[in-house]
Amino acid sequence: MHRYTGGFPFEEPEWVQLVVSDPEGAERAAQQIADRGGEEDPQYAEAVYPELRTVQERAAERGAAPVAVYVPDVRPAAPPLVPATAFMMLQEPPEAGRTLDALSALAREPRGYRLQEPEVRTVELPLGPACRVRELAYDGETADGREVLVEYLTHHVLSPVFPEGVVEFTVSWTPLALGPAMLETADEMAAGLTLSAGRDG
Q1: Which helix (H) or strand (E) holds 54?
Q2: Residue 165 and residue 170: Cα distance in Å, rounded?
Q3: Gap between the Cα atoms of 73 and 18, Å rounded
Q4: How far, rounded to the nearest angstrom, does the alpha carbon of residue 109 sit from its chain's CA centroid?
Q5: Beta strand 119-125 with 84-91: parallel, antiparallel or unpaired?
Q6: 151-201 residue pLDDT tens
Q7: Cα–Cα distance, 92 to 100 (Å, whole number)
């Protein structure tokens, strides 16, 4: 049985790898932030740690890996202190088939969390042809009652390296003001996706 290893490029030090399989992954990521060298970075790392733990736990539940988190050099004035995340995961193909048409149709199906129709198109990536989906979603409220809106850019890739399924790569961010820059970053990451197959045992 194959075991797959994925990867994607990201710019350090603002993007930090979060090793989901490591029980101390959040602690290690926080330490990287503390070690950046800024006078307030140790306090910044301590404040951001709970969010890192949450990202790690959610990624573990999904089976996502690798995962990277965006922690800006300048601490945001208000949460989230981790305003963007990126992750890869392997998925089963749609019931309608492992095709771009099937992926596009599935992406366009109504979703209760969306605030508007998704933007869906097909693109060619080095890893394989992909269905690119941009979504705007409602993600609850802050402690003071403000709505949390999250933007997602997901590439569903039909890679020849993973012929039995679909490679999913998602970058999500809030606040929405990050959108233009983060869209460019997400597309650059997707263009650098890698996947290799080994064998268990």
Answers
A1: helix 41-62
A2: 16
A3: 17
A4: 21
A5: unpaired
A6: 999 999 999 999 999 999 999 999 888 989 999 999 999 999 999 997 655
A7: 14
